[in-house]
Amino acid sequence: MTGGGDGNGENAIEVRGLHKAFGALEVLRGIDFSVARGEVVCVIGPSGSGKSTLLRCVNLLEEPTAGRITVAGTEVTDPEVDIDRVRRRIGMVFQSFNLFPHLTALENLTIAQRRVLRRDRPTAARIARDQLARVGLGDKEAAYPAQLSGGQQQRVAIARALAMDPELMLFDEPTSALDPELVGDVLAVMRALARDGMTMLVVTHEMGFAREVADRVVFMDGGLVVEEGTPGQVVGAPRHERTRAFLSRVLDPTAAEVDGTDGTDAADGTDGTGPTTGQRT
Ligand SMILES: Nc1ncnc2c1ncn2[C@@H]1O[C@H](COP(=O)(O)OP(=O)(O)OP(=O)(O)O)[C@@H](O)[C@H]1O
Ligand SMILES: [Mg+2]
């Protein structure tokens, strides 16, 4: 099961019977799904439904309680796996950008290439410049994160992940910390990436993006996949009442306010961040 994993038609991500508990709290309660190579899958669902936990299990930032996860032919849940080697093939972009504040955009892109992939300085810099240009920031290589807008910082974070030549990219609400006017540029970069054939698993509240870009949408609630299908099916014509209720809250913010924000499902209260649970990373 481990090994090269370049077989044809093999899934980029395969998740079987995934369970994750934090103490007594069962956050993932038996998740099965897969992402094919080149596919874009958007995961939607209320706050606290386990979306981030699912993503974090895929690259073993969280250790599953039970189940089996395979990434590009390598079983990451195999106790013998070289997880660093697997993680190198996975690009991850979070809500918060996690750039090094004391390094320029260019340096933020070269540091891991040099340390992890052992690229020499000129090679790392060339790849960094290519990727900064790809996200529309060719003129910002000397800027420090504090000199960039949130949207620009997030695009640097995407370029940084791309500079590592990932086989797939995981995105966890990459635009939800951004001012509305900055969201579009980041989504445009992600759209272009999808068009280039990148395999992407994207947790998002951007229904327009999901409808337009996703090959498949997965709706999660309460640690389970409630339904999945094409965007037209799941977002356009949801079969389950829970999906419909979620979508009406997301698509109509005034409904969300009446409901008490779309973070109400995190009512187990374990994150303890107060009233605005939606902004956890
Ligand atoms: N390290 C942890 N320890 C304890 N509980 C956790 C931990 N991480 C997550 N949880 C809990 O697991 C549940 C699912 O969290 P998760 O972050 O996966 O939800 P989410 O669907 O990503 O929500 P959001 O839309 O708010 O980001 C929540 O109840 C959360 O409080
Ligand atoms: Mg989350």
Give me a quick take on this structure.
The protein is of the alpha/beta class. It has a domain of 69 residues. 35% of the residues lie in helices and 22% in strands.
Could you describe the 3D structure shown?
- GO terms for molecular function: ATP binding; ATP hydrolysis activity; ATPase-coupled polar amino acid-transporter activity.
- One of its GO terms (cellular component) is plasma membrane.
- The protein has about 280 residues and is an alpha/beta fold.
- It has a domain at about 100-165.
- Helices cover about 35% and strands about 20% of the residues.
- The chain contains ten helices and ten strands.
- It has helices spanning about 50-60, 85, 105-115, 120-135, 150-160, 180-195, 205-215, 230-235, 240-250, 255-260; strands at about 10-20, 25-35, 40-45, 65-70, 75, 90-95, 170, 200-205, 215-220, 225-230.
- The strands form two sheets. The protein has a six-stranded mixed beta sheet, sandwiched between helices. Strands 2-1-4-5 form a four-stranded antiparallel beta sheet, with helices on one face.
- Helix 4 (about 120-135) packs across helix 5 (about 150-160).
- The protein starts with 10 loop residues before the first strand and ends in a 22-residue tail after the last helix.
- Adenosine-5'-triphosphate binds near residues 27, 53, 266 and 270.
- Magnesium ion (MG) binds next to helix 1.
